[in-house]
Structure formats: structure tokens, C-alpha cells
Amino acid sequence: MHRAHAPATPAGNRRKAPPAFGRGGNEGDLELFMAMDLAQQTRVIREGFEPIVVTRIARELLDVQAKTLLESLRLPNSTIARKKSSQERLSASEGDRVARVLMTFAHARDVFEDAGSAAEWMKSPHVELDDEPPLAMLDTQSGFDRVRDLLMRIEFGVGV
User: Can you tell me the distance from the alpha carbon of 65 to that of 63, in angstroms, rounded to the nearest whole number?
Assistant: First the structure.
């Protein structure tokens, strides 16, 4: 039986992303990650974010100290510092928490139509979240689900 094969692609024409693509270490990576589909995001999370992504999200998106973000995500500062110094990537579990922040920020930015408003909303306590800020809920999947549900209710005008 003869199988048809896709034509070989010359090595110079491959569209393979550079090693750090979307992992937080390069300019534009945060936006690249947020623009990826869920399958691509899952792959990047499993392959590991660069630890610098925590500092970049804190500074560039949320306007908080990295320590504040780490505390919200229940990630030890010492672990992230060690991974930075040893050039080790975040584990899938650590990266999943970080990704929840990126996904929530992107959704909030779409809902509020402004990055600054999205960041403020993520840092402000909300009665629907037992007076916790959305950022403090993102360390668990169930907390992320509650925040996502709240954002969808705000987005579609359902009673909040």
C-alpha cells in the first residue's frame, strides 16, 4: 500500500517558533501567549514559562510588586528566585497558575476595554468573591472558575 506523504520542507523554510516563544522572556511574549489558542497555551504551560514572566506580569500588566503576585498565587519567592538563577523553567503546575493570571487579565481587558481598568479590577475586593480580589482567587482552578464566571456575568449584563 502506498501512502502519500507531505512534501519535505527545506530546513530554512520551517515555521518553528524560537525556543522562548510565548514563554515570557521576550518582548511581546505576554501578548503572544494571550493570543494563542488553548492547545498552544497548554503546550507552552507544559514546556514551562521562564521565571521572569512573574516579574513582567506584575510590573507590565498589573502594576504590583512581583512579591504580591507570588503571594496571590501561593508561589514561594525563593522557588522563583532559584529558578531564575539556575535558568530553570516553571513547572507545569506553577505555570498553570501564572497562565490563569494572563487569561483573566486578557478577559478583563476585553470586558472593561482598558488594560488599566482590568488591572485595577483584578486587585480590588469583590463582594461576589467573598470580598477577595480576583487576583487572590487564581491560585486554584475553582477560584479561576469563579472569577471567569463573574467576568462573564459582567460582560453579558447578568446581575452581579
Answer: 7
In 3D space, the residue among 99, 5, 88 whose CA is nearest the CA of residue 43 turns out to be 99
pLDDT tens for each residue of 91-102: 999 999 999 999
Q: Look at residue 120 and tell me if it is in a domain.
A: yes
User: Does residue 9 lie within any of the structural domains?
Assistant: no
Confidence of residue 22 (pLDDT cuts 50, 70, 90): low
Residue 107 in any domain: the answer is: yes
**Residue 32 belongs to what domain range?**
19-155
| Amino acid occupying residue 155 | E
Structurally, how many domains does the chain consist of? Answer: 1
Contacts 24+ apart (CB under 8 A), 35-44: 41/99, 41/103, 44/95
Q: Alpha-carbon distance 92 to 49, whole Å?
A: 8
Place of cell 521562564: 50
